[in-house]
Amino acid sequence: MDAIETGTIDGQNVATFVSFREPAWHGLGTVLEEEVDTQGMLSAAHLDNWNVRVEPVEVPEGYYAFKDQFRTVRTSPFGGSDILGYVGERYKPFQNEELFAFGDALLDGGRWETGGSIKNGTKVFGSLALDRTSVVGDDDVIENYLLVSTSHDGSAAIQASVTPVRVVCANTLNIALAGAKQTFKVRHTQSMQGRVQAAREALALADTYLDLWEEEMEILTQADITNIQFEELINTIYAPNDTKAGATRFQKRHDTLWDIWTSDTIKPVFGTAYGAYNALNEELMWNRGGRGDNSMENVSASRSGFNPVWNAENNGLLKAVKQFVTV
User: Fold this and answer.
1) Per-residue pLDDT tens for 277-286?
2) Fewest C-beta atoms under 10 Å: which of 137, 197, 218, 272?
3) What are the angstrom distances between the C-alpha of 41 and each of 114, 177, 299?
4) pLDDT per residue over 264-305, tens digit each?
5) What are the structural domain ranges in the chain?
6) Measured torsion, CA atoms of residues 79, 81, 84, 86, in degrees rounded to the nearest 10
7) DSSP labels, 212-263
8) In degrees, to the nearest 5, what angle opens at C-alpha 123 toward C-alphas 118 and 126?
9) How many Cβ atoms from other residues are within 10 Å of residue 310's Cβ?
């Protein structure tokens, strides 16, 4: 489950999430009306002073371990300490403060939009607004963000990613593009020292990626897709199997996709391949592990690299749309 952490502090129910001006759909966490610095963001999201550390695991008497065992532990914002995961001897913990400082350094500052933790504190993320706004087609506005994220359980590196977000439906539109670096990672066995410049050079502050991304999306806006073709596209991508359960799943997805395709959020780009891709992407994001079971964090950080399966499927959807309109 990707749920935002919740707990009690000084008798109050709180969540480890903060957003600037706009509340998240899940209604959890703190909404800041005024811009704050990095420390203010960490504090408001209850991400500061975790003191993530590595401790040896004691082997019970009568047992033998072939190698030393270690675990990551934090001082919980809700009191006491939590075991977050089990790691190898070379694992280096990074504090939440270091993660956010990394994001700050990449942009020489910048406005923090969100910050939070999910999966019982094992995953932490933050997002900064980029100065660059994209417009696809006539008036479809795309805001761009730098996302920073890491894990405290050994499952993910420190990562910086560039993410376009379609404002009208808060739909992230990450895609893999040849020749454009979208993500930079620092493993938990490396030092952060000197990595900022390398990250800046790799990401090129997103310009190359966003240039190519805009070109890809602009091509899709020029390709028309009728309702009949959209139906064919659904059947091509999600052809049901012969089982009753498979047919039921297909029908549910089919109906959801049509609801999205004919919704107000798609209306500005309706009838185009770009609109079809957005509808498919939105169904993938929101209706499978999203709003329905209250398990997702704020959308601007929801796809910040924790789910490679989702990332791969999203790219598969784009490929299918492009192939469909060129047949």
Assistant:
1) 999 988 887 7
2) 197
3) 8, 32, 18
4) 989 989 999 999 999 998 888 776 544 433 333 444 344 444
5) 6-49+93-204, 218-326
6) 180
7) HHHHHHHHHHTSB--HHHHHHHHHHHS---SSHHHHHHHHHHHHHHHHHHTS
8) 85
9) 16
